Amino acid sequence: MNPVRVVEGIEIYRGNAPATLRALLYEGHRAWARWFGPVAVGSLEEGLRRWKRPSEAAYFLGRESNPTQARAVELARRHLSGAVLDVGCGVGHLLRELGPGAVGLDSSFVNLYLARKFVVPAARLVCADVAQGLPFEDRSIDGLICAEAFVYMPGRARLAAELLRVWNRRSGLVLSHLDRKPTAAGTPATPEEILALFPGGRIEPETGTTFTLIVGPAPGGGA
Fold first, then answer.
1. Which of 76, 133, 154, 157 is most buried, judging by how many CB atoms fall within 10 Å of its CB?
2. Number of domains in the chain
């Protein structure tokens, strides 16, 4: 599947060209700088504070010390290997821990732009709307992880089918930090609902209100 365009090494698929992307396409162009303000940033923190809502900036700036990040890294090390896809990769904190063959997918070009500049400069990054399907061939992905994002994504049944379509089961599939209760922008899930979408999966509790789904090989990864 071919991207519509590639910018800063980021593959952009149809439906992902917001105004922020148009501004970043012209980084350093004087006219765009006058219209949008400066678009070049010198650090991850500066970029987050310039282009993200305060709550999102604070979330990403605190990722390294967040227990959910540590758990996602631990789950990845236990269950994933090979060509791993990080769905909803944000600015790349988890992607950085997944190894050189990992791919990051996010619907936000800004997230991926900051990931490219400051966190995972060599990773393959894909900007796509999961509601329109995943831009990968059947059974082309060895392992999958979606950390703290699945309950925020639309069309769960279709997304689950797409994840299963691109996954070749050489390592695991992990959905972490699934919320049982409503969140600011997400829709709660139940273990029963999630297991129905991913037959053969197993549930691990996290907190009193969150849980993890794991499908595939036993701990340690591999075929």
1. 76
2. 1
The strand ranges marked E within 88-154 are 103-106, 124-127, 143-147
pTM summary value: 0.89
In this structure, is the dihedral angle defined by the CA atoms of residues 212, 215, 220 and 222, taken in order, positive or negative? negative
* pLDDT tops 60 at residue 220: no
Which residues is 218 bridged to in the sheet?
Answer: none
Question: For residue 35, what are its two tokens?
Answer: 């219209």
Within 10 angstroms of residue 159's Cβ, the number of other Cβ atoms is 19
> Which residue pairs, CB below 8 angstroms and at least 24 apart, start in 97-100?
97/73, 98/145
Q: Find out whether 194 and 202 touch, Cβ atoms under 8 Å.
A: no
Show the DSSP H helices in the chain as ranges. 19-25, 30-36, 44-51, 54-61, 67-79, 109-114, 156-166, 191-197
Domain membership of residue 104 as a residue range = 1-223
Long-range contacts, 16-21 (Cβ 8 Å, 24+) = 16/107, 16/109, 16/127, 16/128, 16/129, 17/109, 18/109, 20/51, 20/109, 20/110, 21/109, 21/110
Cβ(102)–Cβ(81) under 8 Å? Answer: no
> 189-208 pLDDT, tens per residue?
999 999 999 999 999 999 98
Residue 129 near residue 15 (C-beta atoms within 8 A): yes
**Mean pLDDT across the chain:** 87
- Quick one: which of 158, 189, 155 has its CA closest to 175? 189
